[in-house]
Amino acid sequence: MTEIEFLNWVRGPGFQIAVVIFIAGIIIRFAEILLLGRKTNLAEAKGSEMSGGLRTIVTRSFPDRGTFQRSTFTIVAGYIFHIGLFVTIFLFAPHILMFKDVIGFSWPSLPTPVVDAVAVVTIIALLAVLAHRMSNTVLKFLTNTEDLLVWLVTILPLITGYIAFHRIGMTAPSLLAIHILSVELLLVILPFTKLMHAFTFVLSRWYNGAISGYRGVES
Amino acid sequence: MTNNKDKTLLDNSGVDKTGVDKTLGEVLRSQGVSRRSFLKFCAATASMMAMSPAMIPKIAHALESARRPSVIWLSFQECTGCTESLTRAHTATIESLIFDFISLDYHHTLQAAAGHAAEEAREAAMKENDGKYLLVVDGSIPMDNPGYSTIAGISNYDMLMETAKGAAAIIAVGTCATYGGIPHADPNPTGAVSVGDLIKDKPIINVPGCPPIPVVITGVLMHFLTFGTIPELDHIGRPKVFYGQSIHDRCYRRPFYDKGLFAETFDDEGAKKGWCLYKLGCKGPTTYNACATTKWNDGTSWPIEAGHPCLGCSEPDFWDGGGFYKSLSMPTENITQTAIYTVAGAAAAGVALGAMNKNKKSSAVAAHNKTTIDDLEK
Amino acid sequence: MSASLEKGINALKEQVDSTVASFFSSCVHCGICSEACLFYTETGCPTSTPIHKAEPLRRIWKSEYTLLGRVGKMFGLTAKVDEEMLTKWETRVYDNCTLCGRCSMVCPMGIDIALLIRKTREGMAAAGHAPEDLIGATKRAVTIGSPMGVKLPALLAQIKHVEKDTGLKIPLDVEGAEYMLLLSSMEIMNFPEFIGAIAKIFTKAGVSWTISSEAFEATNSGIQIGVADIAAELVQRIVDAAEKLKVKTVISPECGHAYMAIRWEGPNLVGKPFSFKVRHILEILDEFRKDGRLKITGKETQRLTYHDPCQISRRGGVIEQPRKLIDMFSDNFVEMPDHGKMNWCCGAGGGVSSNERADEVRLKVFQRKKDQLDEIKPDAIVSACSNCRIHLEDGLEEYNMDIPLLSLTETLAEHLAE
Amino acid sequence: MSNSTSVQFNIQVGDDLTHNVKPLLNEIKHGLDNLIETGRTTIIDLRSLPLAPGEEEKILNTLGQGEVQAQLNALGLSEVTETQYAGVWIVTHYNDEQHIISRFIEVTTMPEILCSQTEDVMEAYSRLTLDLADNP
């Protein structure tokens, strides 16, 4: 297989396979969760489930002061790499083109040197997150293989993307193909790991807010 | 010298045995070319070979003592675009000199001889210069059925293998000869393969492009003629001096890419302002060629300068990249249809799995034994 | 049928619903919940990380209700729940968690971890992995009617004392009363003044109320140990009594989990909505306040703070009321650094105080409350949960702190205008 | 299809494009310094640089015209001009069709190609000798 054949494969059949697994996985996971259903709450309501749920979806992005002070590193690093991932994934012009091709519409991009810098910061943040995970007592205790796999699968597209952008070590088609392949790996793995939180956080936050909201508590 | 270049080639297509043993220096001097003219020739050659001007004295020295080689040019499944390109090389005077210098013993498009005479010329050149002649090939070789392409009743494969046997080196010209090119494009009806696919025991220089830049062809020829060696090649057999950097890296529109300024259509403000053509499908980032510096048509311009995205023609399988106007980050195939089927299929699967979950839970609830205080201990 | 692993696993399977599935799907192992749990912050022990305590339930969800888990199970790759595991988890789930729900408030994914641990207890109990002391308390609750073994004669004796002290009649089994008061065993045995306070306030407010001789116990051991069947049985007793006496509102006393049990879990346990309302005593008092039925005289001058009982504030929704009530009799009120829905648990809820095995850790984690109190240095602590009150007194003694504990209801009664 | 209207192109020109103009002029300055210090010659092949449209002109305009302009007739036309900066020369080779085949900037006291070459001088000597012998 030549490198262009490789590139054409990842842009063609490889991408199709990844997207199929990605979409199917997410739908299946959501069906698995939602079709389980939950019982109607028979207790007399003190507040609204809906407003509580919607409220918590938003408010859980902002930790309370005490929690921020106690988990500063986790929260700051978490913010950095999440925003970094958002910027690199959604505001890099070539990526927007991909989205435009797949979903039919687009949005403005950031200048490439900005995205480039953000990518570096994000990679550093993810490395710091791993170092923290390996050194913090609780995190070390909680960490399992999946956590490490997910970390790897998340940082790979960033690293391969950075290398592909700067063309380090190999020729451009191979680098681009490796980058796309790493993204496909991420797409395939996402629905079946904790990366699914990218979607289910809406559900879990809503349920939390709804349970509390029903009792008249803002959670 | 104002005569047609093609004619120049034709004039020299016969076997001129008298010049074979002379060095280029001797040939030039006998033609009354001054040393100053020779220096100019060397300077132009250095520029053509993309070599540093500091190399000019070395080139001069090497060329003076270079001997006139025999060149056999074979054309297989091709469109003659490569030959067209070559004969339009803009360094006309210099070109003439080169073609004066080399003995182009066989080129069935350009040579005067035809039929048996032509084939005899090839065989004679092969015999006389066994192990020393240079073989140039354009076009791919069909492997599904030898009848797809024959010359004088000889299949392309047979002619290539026979001619390659005694060659000192092979220059594959054009993307068809180097990587299969358009004949090799999906679904490759003729089973086209490249020269490199068939020949493994000879040095091969790949000069891809559809067509290759004329001065790149002559530059590679000159390198071989000047130094008698093949230039440094990249991992897919291309001379690094010409194919060492991507179009994107040398593109004068690169700053627009970095600033995120793109032409969205061929006639928008961005296009008029000469912004980056990435979004219009430019393959510059994955294409290695010298267009950005060498340019085309006597150095007039090149595709991106003319406002058209790079097609990536010097890369293998450039024809199968999902469309010339589809940018590199886009998937090559239409994903919408797939996505719709997936959603439908997954929804069905999801409902089935959800039902299984519900079922499992119901049976757990059914299996529930009321726990009383007597059941709290084992 | 006695407890068994099989029963426990089945119970866990029963617990999984869309909330559980979405919660486990969202956990990213960020560890932030550990910092919200006093059993971690004060011990540094990572096994006390809240989400980790729900691991048995997570394993069942994963292996039974997810595609990948099921496939993994076929190849023996998905982690299993076995006796050994449950033995390990028993102390994590019962001794090192008060179901205070502070973790549920900080999880960036919005996982209601306390709910998951509450559900995990259902499986633990069914598998025979509940603490001995909790089993004992539960048995007493069912057979005697009170986890502390308080029987009706004991209540009647206390009522007699109270009637003598206050000169007020304590209405027993009065049909058609507006309010039916529940009491926790602790109130009956340790703080009978509470009954007197209620009598004073309700008499002044001019409302009719009663205590049922058939269902006076407010606490619910079934909730704490995690056996829904038993919890339902205990709730049903109250429902029956309330329906028999045709009361409009049942009042949950100064007890945290009792409020959770009757107000929020109760109707769901018995499987139908109540025909009466359930209110916490603080809610009732606040209604009286709003209606102008409470006439207060004199203000406390000492520096007061309020300890939010988890099940009443964070998990119950009664947060504003106590503050408004305290304002009536105090000009010198100060909040703890984290308060209201973010208050730190005293360390004794969720059955921990009934579990002697957990005494040591219970007092150790009190350090958290001590730190909170050290920051504001109050003269007295007001609370609205007898269990919190007893443990706070216990803890303050252990840490050589001399801060009196006050019941909100009792203090309010003391300030009633004659 | 509507008639195609003429499109007004507004290609941006300037050293903010490829950023090669400034460095090149600096390289020339460096070349002059070298020439003064060591007498060494610097030759820059303009065709080896990716230049945006207009940038070559910009370089040539900046260098300007000096005192010397020479034309050679050797395998087609060549132009050798000294720029306004003495020691900086532009050497342009044309082919028969007046197309530029290569263009160099040479930093030297005298471009090599302008000098009479030893071989040519020797050839000239023998030719003159022969001519004189033929026409005494």
Overall pLDDT level of chain A: 94
Topology pattern of chain C, helix = H, strand = E: HHHHHHHHHHHEHHEHHEHEHEHHHEHEH
Categorize the overall geometry of chain C: globular
* Most extensive chain-chain interface: A-C, 59 and 63 residues
What number is the mean pLDDT of chain C? 94
The overall strand count of chain A is 0
Q: How far apart are the first and last residues' alpha carbons of chain A, in Å?
A: 55 Å
| Rg for CA atoms of chain C | 22 Å
The end-to-end span of chain C amounts to 58 Å
Strand portion of chain A? under 5%
Structural class of chain C: mainly alpha
The quaternary structure here is heterotetramer
Text of the CATH class of the largest domain in chain C: Mainly Alpha
Provide an overview of this structure.
The complex is a heterotetramer of chains A (219), B (378), C (418) and D (136). With 219 residues, chain A is mostly helical. Chain A has helices spanning 3-11, 13-34, 49-59, 65-70, 72-90, 93-103, 112-135, 137-142, 145-166, 172-189, 197-214. Chain A has a single domain, classed as Transmembrane di-heme cytochromes, Chain C (Fumarate Reductase Cytochrome B subunit). Chain B folds into 2 domains: 5-242, Rossmann fold; 247-320, Irregular (Cytochrome-c3 Hydrogenase, Chain A, domain 2), CATH 4.10.480.10. In chain B, the strands form 3 sheets. In chain B, strands 2-1-3-7-9 form a 5-stranded parallel β-sheet, with helices on both faces. A two-stranded antiparallel sheet of chain B has the order 4-8. Chain B has a two-stranded antiparallel sheet with strand order 5-6. Chain D has helices at residues 21-38, 55-63, 118-134; strands at residues 42-45, 69-73, 77-82, 88-94, 100-107. Classes of the chains: A mainly alpha (219), B alpha/beta (378), C mainly alpha (418), D alpha+beta (136). The interface between B and C is medium-sized, with 18 and 28 residues.
